[in-house]
């Protein structure tokens, strides 16, 4: 072990917001431009080196990223992650790993995002069974020449979060992290092979307990522990937890308190693990000292020591002027997209605070019904069906205005749904549901944010009763058709679907009504309830939910934010509308073409124009019919369509242009809103009596 090598590394993970954010515990703000300037200053301090493969001059170190960048954030709800491509291209990581939230808008869209990145993306332990390799656009590994050695980098993800990704491609097969780590170690370290790597680094997107288990399995330990004869990896660089953590094999790390215990890391008995916080607030820089492994070892180099620093971004730090300019252009494009219509409402969408915080509201019903089916795929994968209900609070609905009847813009949706806490799923028994709802109704008539919004349940209460004694009963919701028989809930309308021609009066062909009563006794049936993480952690009077367990892995790390869910739903349904309109037009054209020729002269221009108008009207009638069927099947299909199909043809935000940096150039994929107005989603949210107060007169 005579030869010593020093390798420079920088690591970060789980970054989302590009707009200014408050420093926790202060009124000061920081943003990504300060993070970028710090990263550049560290990288510029490294010496230059030339690679032997292409004689390219590069900084003699590596910048590593461990996943989650394209979602979630308010901006991502608008751009579907496209605005982060030029930001990451400016940050210039050498290699990145995909995280769970990078799949929030589906693999097909993720492929377009990574295709425009100027750096490679990894996903080593997911196999596309159609091709036998990694998913298209992603790599199993990358090899770099730095510090006079060859460094292999692989990317491993845990199995748990894959089940939470809606519309995960069925041909994407998970392979155990430890098995893939050993397999790639053998391939990359082979002294007779192509790569001859001296060192292997693993990027991971996994919980800290899984990182610790993996580090033990793959021998991510210092040289003194003598794992040199075993294949594996040398250091793990993790994401997903949003924690800042330095493994116990490292003893020298500026700005890190080794004495502070980390929940979930108790089994770390001397491992080389680095997890670097979150959201452009934290950055890790380090030097790794390497020594030669003994003759005949499986590994060529061993880690003698790691010394590093926890950089915390502060408001006093300088900013990157180049990234400032990029963001200025991108955020202007976001602002322009906010003006675009995304649906047409036939009824008022009343979001006034005094309304949504004191009684059942049509807007709350609409959004809650969409949320109810958001995670159906992930929950059904466990064999237990979709969610049973939704419980959110009136304070979720903002805007304090009335929207519609008429066009509702993307900006309106973002104004109504501004919060960035994820939507999660918890298991709630009847007693807990009663307690939570009693608390939610206890402060009425005060206009407090805790006032409940529900879906999947029918609640009757009496505001004349004393607080915490106001609920008359709670029932599971079932759907009846016009004859009074129970309907299949998959086909029944949950947002009051059918409308008479030429009027905005809702006509319910399927009527929601009371099903089985929810028991007040503790320990009974568990309901899968969709709610906000904010409420699941006991805020705003919902202390009763604090001890409820998450279902299907849909927790704060895996849940999506509400604005993104509603955006996906509207976008997917608009895409379906367009296909329906095209099909209707083609059918009309085919019928016209099939009429026998009678020898009469061709249609006049006026008659031809009238025929085209009829085709267009036929398409719009189909759209209106499909749009208004906001039932479980349509909501789920709309969400699934967005996650499995390319949406740029109906997206009001020009993602292709944004991925190139925005501005006036590259407008080939821009959407002309005048062309898409005809296939806008038609909605008609109404109050259906799901939260009936006997203490006030019916309106």
UniProtKB/TrEMBL annotation:
GO biological process: nucleotide catabolic process
Keywords: Hydrolase, Nucleotide-binding, Signal
Residue span of region Disordered: 482-521, 588-614
Residue ranges occupied by any 5'-Nucleotidase C-terminal domain in the UniProt entry: 356-474
Transmembrane segments: none
Annotated Pfam families: 5_nucleotid_C (PF02872), Metallophos (PF00149)
Protein family membership: Belongs to the 5'-nucleotidase family.
Record-given protein name: 5'-Nucleotidase C-terminal domain-containing protein
Species the sequence originates in: Tulasnella calospora MUT 4182
């Amino acid at each position: 072990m005579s030869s010593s090598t020093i390798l420079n590394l920088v690591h970060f993970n789980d970054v989302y917001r590009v707009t200014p954010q408050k420093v926790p515990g202060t009124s000061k703000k920081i943003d990504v431009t300060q993070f970028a300037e710090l990263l550049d200053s560290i990288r510029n301090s490294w010496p230059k080196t030339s690679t032997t493969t292409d004689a390219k001059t590069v900084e003699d170190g590596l910048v590593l990223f461990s996943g989650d960048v394209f979602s979630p954030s308010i901006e991502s709800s608008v751009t579907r992650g496209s605005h982060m491509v030029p930001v990451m291209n400016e940050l210039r990581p050498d290699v990145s790993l995909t995280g769970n939230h990078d799949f929030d808008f589906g693999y097909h869209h993720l492929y377009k995002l990574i295709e425009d990145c100027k750096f490679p993306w990894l996903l080593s332990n997911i196999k596309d069974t159609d091709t036998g390799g990694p998913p298209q656009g992603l790599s199993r590994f990358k090899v770099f020449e730095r510090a006079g050695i060859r460094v292999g980098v692989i990317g491993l993800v845990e199995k748990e979060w894959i089940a939470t990704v809606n519309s995960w491609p069925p041909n994407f097969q998970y392979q155990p992290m430890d098995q893939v780590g050993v397999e790639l170690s053998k391939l990359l370290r082979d002294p007779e092979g192509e790569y001859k790597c001296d060192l292997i680094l693993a990027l991971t997107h996994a919980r800290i307990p899984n990182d610790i288990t993996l580090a033990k399995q793959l021998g991510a330990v210092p040289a003194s522990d003598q794992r040199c004869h075993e294949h594996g990896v040398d250091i793990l660089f993790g994401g997903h937890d949003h924690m800042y953590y330095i493994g116990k094999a490292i003893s020298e790390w500026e700005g890190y308190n080794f004495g502070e215990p980390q929940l979930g890391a108790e089994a770390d008995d001397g491992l080389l693990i680095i997890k670097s916080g979150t959201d452009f607030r934290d950055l890790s820089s380090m030097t790794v000292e390497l020594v030669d492994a003994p003759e005949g070892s499986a590994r060529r180099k061993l880690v003698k020591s790691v010394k590093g620093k926890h950089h915390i971004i502060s408001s006093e730090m300088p900013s990157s002027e180049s990234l400032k300019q990029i963001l200025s252009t991108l955020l202007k494009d976001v602002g322009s997209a906010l003006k675009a219509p995304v649906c047409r409402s036939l009824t008022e969408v009343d979001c006034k605070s005094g309304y949504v915080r004191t009684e059942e509201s049509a807007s709350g019903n609409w959004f809650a019904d969409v949320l109810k089916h958001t995670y159906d795929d992930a929950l059904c994968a466990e064999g237990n069906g979709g969610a049973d209900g939704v419980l959110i609070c009136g304070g979720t609905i903002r805007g304090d205005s009335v929207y519609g009847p008429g066009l509702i813009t993307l900006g309106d949706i973002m104004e109504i749904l501004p919060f960035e806490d994820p939507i999660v799923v918890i298991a709630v028994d009847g007693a807990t549901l009663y307690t939570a709802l009693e608390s939610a109704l206890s402060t009425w008539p005060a206009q407090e944010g805790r006032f409940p919004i529900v879906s999947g349940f029918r609640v009757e209460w009496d505001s004349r009763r004393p607080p915490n004694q106001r609920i008359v009963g709670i029932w599971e919701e079932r759907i009846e058709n016009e004859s009074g028989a129970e309907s299949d809930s998959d086909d029944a309308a949950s947002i009051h679907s059918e409308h008479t021609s030429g009027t905005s009066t809702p006509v319910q062909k399927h009527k929601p009504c009371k099903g089985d009563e929810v028991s007040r006794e503790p320990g009974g049936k568990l309901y899968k309830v969709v709610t906000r993480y904010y409420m699941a952690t006991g805020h705003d009077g919902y202390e009763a939910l604090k001890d409820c367990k998450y279902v299907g892995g849909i927790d704060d790390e895996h849940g999506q934010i509400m604005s993104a869910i509603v955006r996906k739903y509207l976008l997917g349904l608009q895409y379906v509308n367009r296909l329906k309109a095209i099909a209707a037009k083609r059918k009309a054209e085919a019928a016209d073409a099939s009429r026998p020729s009678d020898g009469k002269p061709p249609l006049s221009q006026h008659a031809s124009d009238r025929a085209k108008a009829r085709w267009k009207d036929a398409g719009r009638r189909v759209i209106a019919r499909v749009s208004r069927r906001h039932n479980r099947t349509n909501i789920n299909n709309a969400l699934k369509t967005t996650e499995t199909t390319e949406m740029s043809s109906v997206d009001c935000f020009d993602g292709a242009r944004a991925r190139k940096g925005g501005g006036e150039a590259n407008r080939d994929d821009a959407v002309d809103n005048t062309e898409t107005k005809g296939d806008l989603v038609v909605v008609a949210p109404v109050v259906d009596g799901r939260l009936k107060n006997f203490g006030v007169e019916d309106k």
